[in-house]
Protein 1
Amino acid sequence: MTHSTQWGAPTPIDPKKGFRIHLIVFLLATPAIWLVWYLTDRTYPWPLWSTPAWAIGVLFHYLGVFVFKKSKNN
């Protein structure tokens, strides 16, 4: 995948960097989501829906980047 700069030259996007950003955002946002739940109404643990769903997304992102790599020659 590539994107264009303001000069029109396509630059490659590093999939490993994209995965690292995804993982860092997940690791930072998940405790924040649980903290919001803890500080508000604790009658129903609603983060139990978003946390595993997002973790599955991170897992598939990892698999797509590191396990099922696309070859450079298409």
Note: The first strand starts at residue 2 and ends at 4.
Protein 2
Amino acid sequence: MNNNPIVWVHGDCLSPDNPGLEKHPDAPAIWVWDDALLEEWQIGLKRIAFIYECLLELPVVIRRGNVAVEVVAFAKEHNADLVVTAESPSPRFDAICHEIERSVQVEVLAVDRFLEYDGYIDLKRFSRYWKVAERYLFG
């Protein structure tokens, strides 16, 4: 039985309603700026500032680097036996979870979906996501 979790908050559920934060409100929580993703996607300063402003409203420790390495280190620092996080549609997410699971158990919680959609959406820019989403939300 797991009784000492940490919560890993990531960009696909950057919300006070994050199911990990709701299920374990007193657990230490971490956000990691993914250096590889920032480089690969060439994320702009405005988006970084927006994310940072969101993070300031959450009870998270902010780090940067290799996500799996930082999450595992944070878990060890807190003697955690479980990493709790929210699901993500990102293929990167699965790879990160598998890497974390080499050291500590991971529990992925379901997220209430904003909309039901199974097609491809370019997640590099919110505006591209929103163009698809608003068709389903507003007809």
Note: The mean pLDDT is 89.
Protein 3
Amino acid sequence: MVSTPTTAPRRLDPALLKLAGVVVLGALMSSLDTTVVNVGVDTLSEQLHASLPAVQWVSTSYLLALAVVIPLSGWAVDRWGAKRVWMGALTLFLVGSALCGLATNIGELIAFRALQGLGGGLLMPVLQTILARAAGPALIGRLMSVVTLPVMLSPVFGPVLAGFLIDTLGWQWIFYINVPIGIVALALAALRLPAGEPKAGERLDWVSMILLSPGLAAVVYGLIVVGDGGDPLGLAWLAGGLVLTGLFCRHVLTTKHKPLLDLRLFGTRGFSVSAVGTFLLGAGLFGAMFLIPLYYQLGQGQTALQAGLLLLPQGVGVALVSPFTGRLTDRFGVRAVVAIGVLAIVAGTIPFTMLSAHPDDVVLIGALVVRGLGLGATMMPTMAAAYLVVGKESVPRAATLLTICQRVGGSLATAVLAVILHSLLAGNPAPVAFSQTFLCALVIALFALVPALLLPRKTS
């Protein structure tokens, strides 16, 4: 009798893991830079003589730049090859980082952060392309679960690292630290990444790029100016941004060529629900990440390092639950997991709406753990639910749209909450001003409960 050998599943061989290590080094820097600046807001405000609404643009410009450049990744990889795009994006990120450290005023820093974001926004989608090609369909799931772990832990260690650098070396080093790490990543990429051959691809939708980028920036800026005192100029910016955004939507829906973003996906109810949920969860994540370290510094007189350490519980909560969200949604369904997660975010935010001159630190630490558990249980399942209702060929375009929704939601919430806090601090004690601003963040979280309850019950 001849036995038929069974084919054992392939393992993640060392060469593949080394390749993953090379690209994750660059992606990790980009991920860290979405949160490290939040710990330095108070320091930047003091040393660059800028108001909170102005300083928040250091975060907002980065998030907006990430959002608008992500759709370019597929076209760029086809046009120049994955290795060239990766090294070019990493170089742009490093140049932007170095210039941020050299900035002498808030305007320069905002501009250089946008440049940094243009490079950083390409890193994660190009990473996924490189690894998908190297691993193949059979191994890409396991490989991405390994690769995303360091990125997932960035909210845990990013604020602590930023606080240490600010207190010991100065705020410039939260940007300078990227340079030596990035040079190593570039050298490794030159040696290890497969060359890849450019191929003929779709023409780039330049019209969308020209309309979308300034349109989003003008809308956010207009909302800030209007909220900061009702200046008619703010209304002009807001109206102009809405016009550009409207023209972008019209162009994308009527063009005969492949559009930059496939807005027709919003015609599917399930995708629209996921997109709205992702937008609101992004607003809740990045908006609160702006407020919490600022409260510890302005409201409690903590140093940047202490504020970073006090953020650890939220990062730990995210890290604890994130590895299990897939299994939880398989067992209980997307709707139940995300709804409970949103309620956890709400519960974790409530203590920050009742701050006093001498708050109970144990309660706040516990609240941050609960917030982290909620964040870890909501973002990925909400985005994954969208893939259940779109065709397989539409998944890359859906992923791009959802990522943009998250970043735009975060940038908008950060801008609006900064304006609210700035106006409240002018006439109220710090605990009162922060409590009322956190109440606005709580309302955002409550709104996220609506799309959560409209998500599908099951994952298949």
Note: The chain has three domains: 15-195, 205-259, 264-460.
Protein 4
Amino acid sequence: MIQLSLDRVRSWFTEEHQKRLAPLAEFAYGELQNAQKDAFGKGWMSWPVDNHDQLFSDIDKIAADFRSKSDVTVVIGIGGSYLGARSVLSMVHPAFTSADHQVIFAGQQLSPTYHAHLLKYLDSHEVTVVVVSKSGTTLEPSAVFHTFRDYVEKRYGQAEAASRICAITDANKGSLRGFADEKGYSTLPIPDDIGGRYSVLSAVGLLPMALSGVDYRKVMKGAANIRESFAKLAVTENPAVTYALARHVLYQQGFAAEALVTYEPRVADFAGWWQQLFGESQGKDGIGLYPTMLQYTTDLHSMGQYVQDARKILVETVLDVFIDDAPELKVPVGLDEKNKYLENVSYAKLQQVAVESVMIAHSEAGVPNMRIEAKGDAETLYGELVYFFEVACAFGGYLMGINPFDQPGVEAYKSEMKARLQ
């Protein structure tokens, strides 16, 4: 369940704003729902309710096979090919627990130290590899994949190595598709009409979920549930639309950045996925809020002074998550006199007092604060949050008059790197 609170942003985004923007909201939402407009990027919209029986069967088969022959799977990808998968594993799995099958991410950067240390670590484990790339030509995952492919081939031999590698790539074309077919790898498709940053509910995210023991069907159900609830609402009653409208008005008022604020460490990686989603979708044509993230209360002791007292360029959106498996924990009794007020207070209460106090202090200092409250079991809630923010992001792009599904600026550094290396 997701609820949006605008109590601490009403000084900047009023109900009158919402009324005046209603015609624009209707138009932008119509653009989002128009199946012919930017059709190449809208497959995610119906994806949670489409029939995926064959895909799920293939995912289950590969996951079972890899889990039977290895205790570690290295998932190689960058951007949308890894951020979503990393975020769901972080949100679902409790901290400090040892999974019976470990998923480790690689290829999201080019550090020689990281990858050399990972290769050494793998020497004492049984290994399988998943490479995620639609084209197979993105430099970072290409270099790392072939390094790890070479490692697996030398360790297990060509035939056995082929049975330990899965490529998630374009169904019909591309460099990786041709290479995987030639080598005899198992493969899963990336849909033509779903871009990387919107792809976490496709095989890109579902196979890592299955490998790590996440109930990905519950994740999909969560996304389907919120899609169904949105369909029953008028455009102006849709919380994802209202959130996007508030961001739009705040940007027009001169705010330059939005921080997604999390209080639960297990949700911090989700903020990383959110950052890419909004950064690539809306950061173009010289416009767009700069998406960043803050993890409170930790960052209150490093960035809190800046947020409270510096130039007012920042909007905070508090993602306040309540996951059903949260344990009960209280401060013990027998404290010293100055800390006695904390005796027998639950950590849940401490956390909520922190959330509310920070929102009051920051908003009264001139920092708009929105709050998105999300409650439920981890898998269902993850699916709901993904779909909520995808709708808000795509709709917000149409509000701004941009295409929220392309990323022309990403190609600039890639072209420069290739020119220097060739």
Note: The chain has a mean pLDDT of 96.
